[in-house]
Amino acid sequence: MTHFVDIDEVSVSYTLGEPPVLEGASLQMSRGEFVALVGPSGCGKSTFMKLMSGLLQADQGSVVVANQEVTRPLGNVGMAFQNSVMLPWRTTLNNLLLPLEIVRPHRETFRQKREAHANKAIELLSSVGLEDVSEKYPWELSGGMRQRASLCRALIHEPEVLMLDEPFGALDAFTREELWCVLRDLWQERKFTVLLVTHDLIESAFLADRVLVMSNRPGRVIMELEIPFERPRDLDIRFEKEFVDIVHQLRDQIRTARAA
Amino acid sequence: MELMRKRNLERLAPWFVTVLMFLIWEIICRLGGIPEYFLPAPTVIFDAMLTFHEALIEDSLYTLLSTSLGFGIAVVFGLLLGLLIGWSKTIYRGLYPVMVGFNSVPKVAVVPILVLWFGIGTVPAVLTAFLISFFPIVVNVATGLATTEPELEDVLRSLGASKLDIMLKVGIPGAMPFFFGSLKVAITLAFVGAVVSETVASNHGVGHLMLSAQANFEVPLVFAGLLVLAFEGIVMYAIFAAIEQRTVHWAYRSHQ
Q1: Quick check: A87 and B253 CB within 8 A?
Q2: How far is B50 from B24, CA to CA, in rounded Å?
Q3: What are the φ/ψ torsions at residue A11 (nearest 5 degrees)?
Q4: pTM exceeds 0.95, yes or no
Q5: 3-class DSSP state for residue A63?
Q6: Most CB within 10 Å of its CB: which of A139, A242, B62, B106?
C-alpha cells in the first residue's frame, strides 16, 4: 500500500564534514493521520518538517507526499510555530488571508474573491473562539489568541498537511490545554494530516494517533507507539492509568535515546 | 489628577528648558559683562534677527531648497540601494566596504571637488546634502530587510512564494519603521551638508550669510543665523518624526 506521506531512508547534512542531522530516517503517514514526533533536542525533528514541505531537499532518499515526489515547495501544507509570526502591520483578518495571496491557484483570483475569503476566515476564527478580533492587530491579542490565529492561518488555504513545530511551547499550562482542545476539535472536523513536533509527551499522547520517537543526532525514528484511545478524547484522559503508562513508556524511550 | 499634572509637566518640559537656557545665557552675558563681539546676549541676537529678517528669510528658504532637493535624491537613491543590498548577500558583501569608506570621508573635503565640477552655487549644496544623508537610509533599509523572521519566510516559502513575494509581503513593509526612522536622522544631516557647502562655496543660503556676517564683524547676525538653523532643524526633525508615527504606528505599540 502506498502511504500519503512516505519519507524513505533520507539523509540530510547542513554542513560538510559534520555529522548529518538525519541519517537513514523514514517516516510514513496515512491520509488524515495525526502523528506526533518527539525526541531529544537537536535530533532533526524540524528537519523532517522542512523535508515534507519542500523547503529542504534530502541528500539521499526520497520524499513523497500525495504520490508526488517533493522537489520544491508545493503549497499544499500549512505551518505553525512556537512563535506565532504574525505581521504586526496587518489586522488578524489580513494576516489570515496572507496564504491566499501567495498560494496557487488562489493568488490569481484573490482580489475578485476577497470577500468570500474574508467570510471564510472569520468563520474559521469563530471556530477557535476568536469571533471579535478580526480587525484587531496581532499585538493587541494575548499569546494564546495569537497562537489560535496562527493555527487558523495555517489552515485557511485548506492544506492537505498541517505541520506544527512546538506550537504550544510558549504558552502557560491552562492556555495550552485550551489549545489542545481547539486543535483536537479542528482535526475532528476536518481530518487533515498532521505532523506535530513537540517536547511535551502528554501533549503528543493526548493529540496523536501515533507517536514517533527519534534518536539523538544523526536522527532517525527508533520507536513508534500507537495511541489506542478513542476519539474525541477528553482532557481527563490524561489521568487514567493506561494513558500514564503510555507516557511513561515514551519517557523511558527518550531517556535511552538521549543516553545513546 | 496627579497623572494629569505629570502629563502636563511632561508636555511643557521642552519649552521650559528652552526658555531657561536663553534666560541663563542672557543673565551670564549681562552680569558677566561679556562683549557683544564675543558672545551676544539672546535679546541682542533677536534684535539682529528683526533687523535682518528679510535676508534671513530669503537665505533660509534657499538653504531649505538645497536641503530638500539633496534629501529627496537621498531618499530615492538610499531606498533603492538599501533594497538592492537587502536583496542579495553578494551585493551586500561587495558594496559594504566601499560604502563605509565613502561614509568615512568628511563631506566638507568633497565640496571643493564638487565646486571644481559644477561651479559655485546650488549644485554643490544639493549634492553635499545628498552625499551626507543617503548613508543612514541605505543602512537602515538593509537592516530592516535583514530582520525578516526566518519562520515567516518558511511559512511563505512552503506556500510557494517567490523571493519577490516575500520581499513585497514581508520584507519591505517590515523595513518601513527602519526607513522612516532613518529619515529624521537623514534630514538633519542633509541640512548640515547644505550649510557646510554654502559656507565654503556659495553666494546664497544661511551658510553664506553667516560667513559674510562674520567677515563684516556682525557677530549678532552670525548667531542669528545659527539660531535660524537650529530652529529649521528642529522643525524638519519634528515633521519627519510625525510622519514616522503616522505611517508605522504599529511599530510604536509598546510606547502607547
Answers
A1: no
A2: 22
A3: -130, 140
A4: no
A5: strand
A6: B62
Dist CA B228 CA B222 (whole Å): 10
The interface predicted TM-score of the complex, written ipTM, equals 0.81
Task: Copy the grid coordinates of residue A99.
Answer: 496564504
The DSSP line for B200-231 is HS-SSHHHHHHHHHHHTT-HHHHHHHHHHHHH
Alpha carbon distance A164, A196 (integer Å): 5
Show me where the domains of chain A are located.
1-76+196-260
Name the burial class of residue A95, with classes exposed (0-12), middle (13-18) and buried (19+) by CB atoms within 10 angstroms of its CB: buried
User: Per-residue pLDDT for A102 more than 90?
Assistant: no
Q: Across residues A168-177, what is the average pLDDT?
A: 86
The residue of chain A with its CA nearest to that of B176 is A89
d(CA B30, CA B33): 5
Instruction: List the end-to-end C-alpha distance of chain A, in Å, as a whole number.
Output: 33
Distances (CA, A) of B243 to A255, B172, B180, B185: 57, 17, 8, 13
- pLDDT tens digits, residue range A39-75? 777 778 888 888 888 888 888 888 888 888 888 887 7
Name the CATH topology of A1-76+196-260: Rossmann fold (3.40.50)
Contacting residues of A for B158, CB less than 8 Å apart: 53-55, 73, 75, 77, 79
The total of other beta-carbon atoms located within 10 Å of residue A114's CB is 13
Residue A171 gets which letter from DSSP? Answer: S
C-alpha cell recorded at residue A79: 505551518
Backbone φ and ψ for A64, nearest 5 degrees, come out as -125, 125
Element (H, E) at B138: helix B122-146
**Which residues on chain A are in Cβ contact (under 8 Å) with B152?**
85, 87
Return the C-alpha cell found at B240: 519627519
CB A51 within 8 A of CB A7: yes
**C-alpha grid cell, residue A165:** 513545530
For the four alpha carbons of B135, B136, B139 and B140, in that order, the dihedral sign comes to negative
What is the per-residue burial (b if ≥16 Cβ within 10 Å, else e) of B47-68? Answer: ebbeebeebbeebbebbbbbbb
Rounded to the nearest angstrom, the gap between the alpha carbon of residue B85 and the centroid of all alpha carbons in its chain is: 23
Q: Is B172 on the interface with A (CB under 8 A)?
A: no
Q: What integer pLDDT is reported at residue A1 of this predicted model?
A: 55
| Chosen from A102, A108, A137, A166 to mutate, greatest number of chain B CBs within 10 A | A102
Phi/psi region, residue A9 (left: phi>0; alpha: psi -120 to 50; beta: rest), is left
pLDDT at B256: 41
Amino acid, single-letter form, for residue B158: S
Task: Give CA–CA dist A249/A259, Å, rounded.
Answer: 16
A73 part of contact set with chain B, CB < 8 Å: yes
**pLDDT beneath 70, residues of chain B:** 1, 253-256
